[in-house]
Structure formats: structure tokens, C-alpha cells
Amino acid sequence: MSTSTPPVRGRRPSAPEPVLRVDPADPLADPVPVVDGVPLTSQRLPEWFVWAALGASFVVVGGAGLAAGLGAPAILVLTALVWVVSATAVSWVKEGERWGRNTALTVLVYLAFALVMVPLVSLVWMVVVGGAQRFGPDFLLTNMRGADDTNGGVYHGIIGTLEITGIATLISVPLGLFTAIFLVEYDGGWVARAVTFLVDVMTGIPSIVAGLFAYTLFLMIMGPRYQAGIIGAVALSVLMTPVVIRGVEEMLRLVPNELREASYALGVPKWLTIVKVVLRTAVAGITTSIMIAIARVIGETAPLLITVGLTVRTNVNPVEGSMATLPVLVYDQYSRGETAAMERAWAGALTLIVIVMVLNLLARLVSVYLSPKGGRR
């Protein structure tokens, strides 16, 4: 008597094995695996296809646009539209629906990036062109004392900007770093929730309010008519601290908990784990957050107009007398409307951009040097 194995309830039938099929039109090509008549692979276009489609679209649309008398903006817009449609259509036909959609989204991402870069590049180009006429060693190493239309620089503004921003950084970075560590590494309960709420509120306060706060604070302590760089530094620190807290907090949350647990398992105390493991792991992100906060305040004008004022001489003492800063100096020169003053204003804006760029490069070097290296030593 023969017996048969009953089918197991709930077991799915096995998937059919793929069959290799050779294309009759090209017998020398590699066989394609096929399941139930559906090929498992499709023909892929080369990686340079998207850029070739862009070049072809630009040539075709540019030639037709010049013949029709269109301007450069119209030609660029039409080129972008033709690029999206043509690249997607060719990919859809040659590679299939899935890769066609992928090509469409890829082209749209490239276009979005180019659209974002347009105002940035145009702004930098405008500042470079406008400031190149005055920018130079004489402009960077002289102040406005006794200046006429042919001379006068921003040396006093550079000194004031660096001193005030540096003092604000010395105030904000420790406060922001320790507050972020408290919010992430310690269970603060309702205190942590209250601090988070206050940080969110401080992030959105206008800069003029920070300037009025610092001016009123020193007015009660030092008396009326007191202007000094330290007041501007306090005002900038009010704006800078919440940015540092938010940035450092997010970077600390990205550190895997497994690193903390491994350190605790070795008997390392909590404070040393934070210093040696958590902060070392997140040092690149922390440095970036600090630089974002510095860039946020280094160009502020309104709070410095109230607290620091403006002078034509170089003042290196941040606790006595008015100080010149680059943003206020640029605003003052631009408001004059004269040709020489306008040139100095553009050159001062270029100087501020160069300072921010140099600070970012130094921050990158610091983060690379302090970041944990891979491998064992």
C-alpha cells in the first residue's frame, strides 16, 4: 500500500527557478535570467547618461532660444524642463519604469541643488565684485581716523569684531555645552523640560531685544552713558547660547548608547565617560554647531548699535569706550551713500565673509585633529 506525504498547511509553494534566456537578436550577449517570462535584469544606461542628457538639452534649447531671441533666464528654465522630460523618457524606455522614476527624481534633486546655489553664488559674486576695488593690505591695516575719499580702512572694525565675538564665544560655549550635557546625559525631569522650553523661546527672540537686555543690565550696574565691547559680547551671547545648546544636544543624541554602556562596563565613571567617549565621538558635530552659532552672531548689527556704538579709532579695550565692529561699520558707510563710502561698505562685507571662511577652516582642522581615529594604536 503506497503512502503519500500530506501537504503541510500554511506552507507556500516554492518559487520557480529562473531560466537563462538568450536574446535572439544578439546571440553573443550574456543570457538573461527569466521567471515566468519576466526578465530579472534590465538594460542599464551608463552613469554619464544624465549629464549627457543635460548637455544635449542645453545645446538644443540654447540654439533654438538664441534663434528665437530668448534671454538667458528663459533658456536656462527651458533647458531644465527639457532635461527632466528627455532624461526620464529615455530611461523609462531603456531601463524600465522603476529606473525611469529613479532618473526623474535624480534630475529633480540636481535641479533643486542648483536652484539653492543660485542666490548663494550671486551674493558672493556681488560682494567680491563690489569689494575688490578697496580690499587690500592698506584697507585691512588702517582705520577711519582722518580718512578721506582715497584712504580709510576697517582695521578697528576687525579688532572689535574679533574681540566681541571671541568674548561672546567664551561665554556661550561653556554654558551651551554644559546645558546640553545636562539635557542629554542626566535625567533632569521637569527641570530639563523647563530648560528645553526656555531654550526654544530664546532661539526666536529678536536681536534688538538681546541688545536692549544687555544695555539695561549694564545701565543698572555701571550707570548711564556706558558703552563698551563687553556689553555687545553679552548681547551676542544671549543670541548665541540657545543655538549652541540645540546643536550640541542633537550631536550628543547621535552618539550610540552602546559606547556609553561599554565604558560603564569597564568601570569608568559617568563624568569621565562623557569627557573621553561621548564628547570625543561628537567633537566634529559640536565644532560645527559652535561655528554655526558664531556665524549667527558675527554679522549682527542692531544689538551692537545700541551697546557698542561706533568710533573711528582703534580701541582694543573691551571694557571701556566705544568699539567699531564690521557690521556697524558697513551699515554706517552704506548709509552715507557716497561713492567712496559705498566702496568701503562692500569691502567691509567682503572682509567679514573672509573672516567667517577662515574661522570655518580652522574649525574643520580642529575637528579633524580631535576626532577619534579608526583602528587601534
Shape: flat
The first-to-last residue Cα distance is: 73 Å
Strands across the major sheet, in which order? 1-2-3
Order of helices and strands: EEEHHHHHHHHHHHHHH
Beta-strand level of the residues, as a percent range? under 5%
Low-confidence stretches: none
Helix content: 55-70%
The number of helical segments is: 14
Largest sheet: 3 strands, antiparallel
Look at the structure and give the mean pLDDT.
Answer: 84
Name given to the CATH homologous superfamily of the largest domain: MetI-like
Count the E strands: 3
Q: Would you summarize the structure shown here?
A:
The protein has 377 residues and is an all-alpha fold. It has helices at 49-68, 72-95, 97-131, 137-141, 155-185, 190-203, 207-222, 229-253, 257-265, 270-281, 283-297, 302-307, 326-336, 339-370, and strands at residues 19-21, 32-35, 38-39.
Describe this entry's structure for a reader:
The protein is mostly helical and 377 residues long. It has 2 domains: 49-130, no CATH class; 139-370, Orthogonal Bundle (MetI-like fold). It contains 14 helices and 3 strands. The protein has a 3-stranded antiparallel β-sheet, with no helix packed on it. Helix 2 (72-95) runs antiparallel to helix 3 and helix 5 (155-185) packs across helix 13. The protein starts with 18 loop residues before the first strand and ends in a 7-residue tail after the last helix. The model has no long low-confidence stretch (mean pLDDT 84).
